[in-house]
Amino acid sequence: MDTAPVCLDLMVGLPMAREPSSCTGTRTLAEVPSPACGRAASMTNEEAKILQAKLAQVSDENRRLTEMIAHLYGNRVARESSPSACTAASPSSNKRVRALSPPATSTAASPASSKKRGRESDSVETSNSRGEAANCDKKSGTVDAQHVDSPLRDDGTYRRIKVKRVCTRIDPSDTSLVVKDGYQWRKYGQKVTRDNPSPRAYFRCAFAPSCPIKKKVQRSAENSSVLEATYEGEHNHPQPTRAGELTSSCVTRSGSVPCSISINSSGPTITLDLTKNGGGVQVVEAGEAQQPDLKKVCREVASPEFRRELVEQMARELTSDPNFTGALAAAILQKLPEY
DNA sequence: GTTATTTGACCCCGG
DNA sequence: CCCGGGGTCAAATAA
């Protein structure tokens, strides 16, 4: 890669995708003028001030959106949480758990997390998984899931990281640490841990680069035919396919669908696959019998008129956003040679 | 040439 | 302050 790094945060309020450490999208103002991140060194003071002002504006917007998301998410979790044996916040974990995200400027469990933040997620995992492993081995079924919501305190606000453990029975001779859960995963590391001779594999969501979820897969120490998968966080996107089977034919080699939309609101799944028919929309319906209204909506959504309107609307939204145009201008400015 | 996986090195934290 | 362990990075390699 010999392209000049461009610091352009277009993901206001969203977890940032993994980027080179020298050019992380979300930054505090004080960090911005680093020469390693763009061409700030070659700019005039005036240009730098303009960019800093714009960045401050974007950062502020980012912070507000983050707070809003944290608030909404907190409300949702509070509504969904019901007392059960499998769902419990670990009180003893509170003292060890820290916020998963950098203060104020990023949402929870950013995949752009540094190693420092990685330790934080470790705290979450260890706080509730130790001592629960035995539950998996005794199961005769294939899957044993546990949900643990970890309350986190960050600048006075609570954040929750959902930690889910899934145990799957596999063939003991099967050495691949693969748990099929319908999502596409990208392996980014493997480690042999002290308390288990079998290696632990680390996965990130390959479907959406900005998806904060992480998965750890390891054979059970007591029973090698049991695969323990630990999910930290939640997907910030719908499941790409139902059980990863319906549209497997259109999954690219990289394991991701370049452009598909799934609508799944606790009902039948609708997948708009924009990769088929030369860009045309194909509606893949799955699940229960479609209601007449739903079918009508599907036809409407698949129509060229709807697509055109959708694209135009997105373009209007982007071009009317002063933050976006400002950031875009700044990025272009940085890309230009010093004329 | 592109993308995913492997794997050794590095970093950070807790004891 | 040092050491060990877990998690992540990133270059090398494979597909």
TrEMBL record:
Cross-referenced PANTHER family: WRKY TRANSCRIPTION FACTOR 36-RELATED, WRKY TRANSCRIPTION FACTOR 40-RELATED
Comp. bias (Low complexity): 81-113
Annotated GO CC locations: nucleus
Entry-linked SMART domains: WRKY (SM00774)
Gene Ontology terms for molecular function: DNA-binding transcription factor activity; sequence-specific DNA binding
Keywords, ordered alphabetically: Coiled coil, DNA-binding, Nucleus, Transcription, Transcription regulation
Location (main, coarse): nucleus
Protein name from the UniProt record: WRKY domain-containing protein
PROSITE patterns: WRKY
Similarity section: Belongs to the WRKY group II-a family.
Domain WRKY: from-to ranges: 174-240
Source species, domain of life: Eukaryota
Gene source species: Brachypodium distachyon
Entry-linked InterPro entries: WRKY_dom (IPR003657), WRKY_dom_sf (IPR036576), WRKY_plant (IPR044810)
Stretches of the chain forming a coiled coil according to its record: 41-68
Region Disordered: start-end pairs: 80-152
Record carries keyword DNA-binding: yes
A Pfam family annotated for this UniProt entry: WRKY
Subcellular location: Nucleus
Keyword Transcription: yes
Compositional bias ranges of the Basic and acidic residues kind: 135-152
Gene name linked to the record: LOC100839756
One BP term from GO: response to bacterium
